[in-house]
Every structure is written in structure tokens, then in C-alpha cells.
Amino acid sequence: MFEIALCYPYGINELExxxxxxxxxxxxxxxxxxxxxxxxxxxxxxxxxxTKKGIYLIARQHSGETPGSWVLDGFLRCLAEINYKDLxxxxxxxxxxxxxxxxxxxxxxxxxxxxxxxxxPPMRHETLVIQRDIMRWKDRCKPFLxxxxxxPGACERDxxxxxxxxxxxxxxxHEVEKNMVEKIVRQIGEKYxxxxxVKSINYKSRWETPHFADFIxxxxxxxxxxxxxxxxxxxxxxxxxxxxxKIGEKIAMGIIDxxxxxx
Length: 263
Ligand SMILES: [Zn+2]
Fold this sequence. Notes:
There is one protein chain. With 263 residues, this protein is of the alpha/beta class. It has a single domain (12-262), classed as 3-Layer(aba) Sandwich (Aminopeptidase). 36% of the residues lie in helices and 21% in strands. It contains 7 helices and 10 strands. The protein has helices spanning 12-21, 66-81, 97-102, 125-138, 171-188, 212-220, 241-262; strands spanning 27-33, 39-44, 53-59, 87-92, 142-150, 160-163, 193-199, 224-228, 233-234, 237-238. The strands form 2 sheets. The chain has an 8-stranded mixed sheet, sandwiched between helices. The N and C termini lie far apart (57 Å). The protein binds zinc ion.
């Protein structure tokens, strides 16, 4: 038997390499342990800057979705490179660490999909740990946005797209999130972007309980969306690590644009 990777792996080793490359811009802390007692790591650039805007990021709730990690890697490298100081960034890069270490795909993971476990009470131990960290973060900055990084179904190859709240659920928030996405999309450019780049979840889930963005919107009253970047192909383009990183860098530039506009 032999195994072939559909995508570029991203785990603890890649995260350690990333930390070495970014010259102490990112601090690494353990915020709790997983169901199987692995460390849940959170990176941050500032611990406590109550006057600055803040953003909370998460990746790998579905542990197989490594394109999300490479996009996040590019995003975080970009902020370190320009030594950006106007935003408090906290990020859980390997949230479903057990799934990552065990090599699970991670969507609908036993005993409960991590990204449907965000209700009260939370249905996964990891979610409880990260919810508490989010509550810590919200008192250390001015919460402004939260993003969840994913990859779509393996057959999807139309380019990167975003899930925002539906117009039926909350029209005002829908408009706010859509405007933000438009600014980010302008930065990313046509090469990597799906023609249908704004979507709202309309598929049936195994569990209809809250996901990360629901938790953020309900508890913090700030916008939150997820980003889906395909495995292997954006239409004709074969995606390499640097393509994913480029998308992440452009997302960071888009967010810096939004912050400038807000001032
Ligand atoms: Zn996913």
C-alpha cells in the first residue's frame, strides 16, 4: 500500500519553520489541550493593546483542509514582514490538532464536527478552549473581525470564495461582510478568485448547531466569514505553496485597506 497526498501537508513542523522564518514577530502559547491531550497552540503579535483593533483567526477545524493553512501562512508572514503594528492578531492555526496528527480528513469528525460545535454548551473540548481564548482576546483589543480558513470539496476548482451570513438571517451584517469581502477580493485579483466569490451556507449539515462565525457574530456582534481555497487547481492553474501564500498576503493587504478606510 502507498499513499499519495492530494495537497501540501501542513502540521507542527511547517508551523515551527514558519515561526523560525518570522523573527519573533509571533508569540506562541498553549491555551489548552485537545481531546487526545495534544497542545492547542495560539499565536499572537500583541497580548494587550486595548486601543487597537483586533482580529481572531482559526484554521484546520477540518483537519485535512491544508490549503487553508498555506493561505494563513502567507497572511501571517505578510504581517511579520512589514512588521505591522496597527492590528492585534490572535490565531489558532491547527485547531483540530488530533485530526491533523491522526491524518483524518476532519469534516464531520468523530464525535462531532469541530465547526458545528460552537453552541452553548460547546460540543467539543477544543471549542470550549478556543471560545475562552476568544473571550480573553475581546478584552485585550477592539474586536473588529474573525476569519475561519478552509478548503472546499476536492472537486471544486473555480478559485477562492467566501462564506458570509445570509441576507435572510441578518441583512445589515450581510452588507457589512459583503463590503469587506469586496475589498479583499479586489486585492486578490481574478487569477485566484471564483466568479461566484460570495456565498452563504445553504447545504444541509449533519449537525445544524452553530459554527465558528455564528459564535463570533452572536457573542461579539462583529463580522465573521470563512474563506475556501481549493485543493490543487484554480481553474487551469496548478496551485503551489507560493500561490496559496500569495492569496494570504493579498487578504492581509485587503484587511489593511479596510482598516485605513475605517480610520
Ligand atoms: Zn472546512
